[in-house]
């Protein structure tokens, strides 16, 4: 009896190229140990200082790390250290959405169905109050729309402004940083719409919504 052809073996995912593996290890070291000098990082990795510096510059260009000057232990000569940016921190797993879901679920269980929206509306009102200093009343409407879109981008929404042929302005959010929560609690999206109205002082209509499977959250500004 002859043996049949060998069974195919599953293909493992190709390993990362060596430079990318080194960059990944650099990020892990900064995550675990906090700010580090290039000499410290090179020693941990077993590479030359110039080699480590090249990888660090690449990571800086990607916005994943930043450099600052500090004194070790508050004393001694200042030295340059590298640390993760918010974007670099975001590359590591987080459970913020699960925590938020748990909190909202308990809020509704303890205080009733409308309680989650009340909490989220209170948050929106607080954010609108904070934005009042950045968006003074004397701003022209189009300047206010652009400034608000820039603030939204800083909050992770990747927002852009558009203007129709008839002069109508739109804010388009191309990312939803709270998508997991928004899909289970539409109150979050209702509260966000209220924030738009409070900040812009104009009627706002949401035409599309990422949480409903569409490609963006598109807000029409004005009637």
From TrEMBL:
Domain of life of the organism encoding this protein: Bacteria
InterPro entries, A to Z: ArsR-like_HTH, Carb_Metab_HTH_regulators, WH-like_DNA-bd_sf, WH_DNA-bd_sf
Pfam families per UniProt: HTH_24 (PF13412)
PANTHER family to which the protein is assigned, alphabetical: HTH-TYPE TRANSCRIPTIONAL REGULATOR SRLR-RELATED, TRANSCRIPTIONAL REGULATORY PROTEIN-RELATED
Name this protein carries in UniProt: Transcriptional regulator
Organism: Deinococcus carri
Lineage, top ranks: Bacteria, Thermotogati, Deinococcota, Deinococci, Deinococcales
């Amino acid at each position: 009896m002859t043996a049949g052809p060998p069974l195919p073996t599953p293909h493992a995912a190709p390993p990362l190229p060596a430079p990318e593996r080194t960059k990944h290890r650099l990020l892990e070291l900064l995550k675990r140990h906090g700010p580090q000098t290039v000499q410290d990082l090179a020693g941990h990795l077993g590479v030359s200082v110039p080699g480590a510096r090249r990888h660090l510059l690449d990571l800086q260009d990607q916005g994943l790390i930043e450099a600052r000057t500090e004194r070790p232990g508050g004393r001694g000569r200042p030295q340059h250290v590298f640390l993760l940016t918010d974007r670099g921190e975001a590359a590591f797993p987080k459970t913020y959405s699960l925590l938020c879901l748990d909190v909202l679920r308990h809020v509704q269980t303890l205080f009733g169905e409308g309680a989650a929206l009340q909490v989220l509306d209170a948050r929106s009102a607080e954010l609108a109050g904070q934005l009042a200093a950045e968006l003074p009343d004397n701003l022209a409407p189009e300047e206010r729309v652009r400034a608000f879109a820039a603030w939204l981008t800083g909050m992770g929404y990747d927002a852009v402004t558009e203007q129709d042929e008839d002069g109508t302005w739109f804010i388009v959010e191309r990312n939803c940083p709270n998508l997991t929560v928004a899909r289970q609690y539409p109150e979050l999206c209702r509260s966000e719409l209220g924030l738009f109205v409070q900040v812009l002082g104009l009627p706002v209509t949401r035409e599309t919504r990422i949480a409903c499977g569409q490609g963006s959250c598109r807000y029409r500004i004005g009637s």
